[in-house]
């Protein structure tokens, strides 16, 4: 690595280390802000992940552990699904109860040190501000109804958090489940985490410098509503 690249890297680290946590509801802006970090996306479409795979409470998939005590109390499991097209590939995260999460279905994630967490939500039903909330560290970001991307009668939302000053190892998703509704269902895709430092590329100095400086369809919901 040249002296110029090394200085640029130090400048990036210095600038990001002083940043406060930032919440995002736009996926493009979130990914752009991760320039210079090493990202990993769990899109549920790798060769080792097949549709129909059950993810039990406390199971890990591709470095992320899923916990969902309340959901499991209904004898419902998370499941990799491919019933409908989603934000990437053909698979997404749903459940073995009609393929979807319901309002009130919360879950937690745990993973190795990350400076970012973000994910996409595909929803059906009337959505209000804050109906889904993502929390990591001391920062939360809630769904903004107006930010949804229409998908016929459904919508796509993104929630993300970046904190380059303090890594976190857990995140939680809270889906509002108030009495009397409005009721909604949702699925999840493209869970992104990030490390602070990008690995050097000795074969290409310009590529290293650039790294440092720099199909959807309706869900066709079929479900049964769980009762307490």
Structure explained in plain terms:
With 228 residues, this protein is an alpha+beta fold. The protein has one domain: Jelly Rolls (Sandwich), CATH 2.60.120. Helices cover 16% and strands 36% of the residues. It has helices spanning 3-17, 27-33, 69-73, 205-213, and strands at 22-24, 38-42, 54-55, 60-61, 64-67, 78-81, 92-95, 101-102, 107-114, 116-124, 132-136, 139-142, 149-151, 154-162, 168-175, 185-195. Helix 1 (3-17) packs parallel to helix 4 (205-213). The termini are far apart.
Q: How would you concisely characterize the structure shown here?
A:
This protein is α+β, with helices and mostly antiparallel strands and 228 residues long.
Mind sketching the topology for me?
Blueprint: H1 3-17, E1 22-24, H2 27-33, E2 38-42, E3 54-55, E4 60-61, E5 64-67, H3 69-73, E6 78-81, E7 92-95, E8 101-102, E9 107-114, E10 116-124, E11 132-136, E12 139-142, E13 149-151, E14 154-162, E15 168-175, E16 185-195, H4 205-213
Antiparallel strand pairs: 1-14, 2-16, 3-6, 4-5, 5-9, 6-7, 8-16, 9-15, 10-14, 10-16, 11-12, 11-15, 13-14
Helix pairs in contact: 1-4
């Amino acid at each position: 690595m040249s002296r110029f690249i090394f200085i640029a890297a130090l400048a990036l680290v210095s600038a990001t280390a002083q940043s406060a946590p930032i919440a995002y509801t736009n996926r493009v802006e979130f990914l752009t802000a991760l320039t210079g970090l090493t990202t990993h996306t769990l899109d549920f479409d790798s060769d080792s992940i097949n549709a129909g795979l059950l993810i039990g409470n406390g199971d890990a998939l591709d470095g992320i552990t899923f916990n969902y005590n309340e959901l499991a109390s209904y004898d419902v499991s998370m499941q990799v699904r491919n019933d409908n097209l989603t934000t990437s590939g053909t698979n997404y995260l749903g459940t073995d109860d009609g393929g979807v999460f319901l309002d009130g279905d919360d879950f937690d994630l745990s993973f190795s040190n990350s400076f970012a967490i973000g994910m996409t939500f595909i929803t059906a039903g009337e959505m209000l501000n804050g109906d889904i909330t993502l929390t990591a560290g001391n920062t939360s970001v809630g769904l903004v109804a107006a930010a949804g991307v229409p998908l016929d009668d459904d919508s796509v939302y993104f929630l993300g958090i970046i904190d380059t000053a303090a890594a976190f190892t857990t995140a939680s998703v809270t889906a509002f489940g108030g009495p009397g509704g409005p009721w909604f269902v949702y699925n999840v895709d493209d869970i992104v985490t990030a490390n602070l430092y990008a690995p050097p590329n000795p074969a290409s100095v310009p590529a290293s410098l650039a790294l440092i400086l720099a199909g959807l369809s309706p869900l066709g919901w079929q479900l049964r509503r769980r009762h307490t």
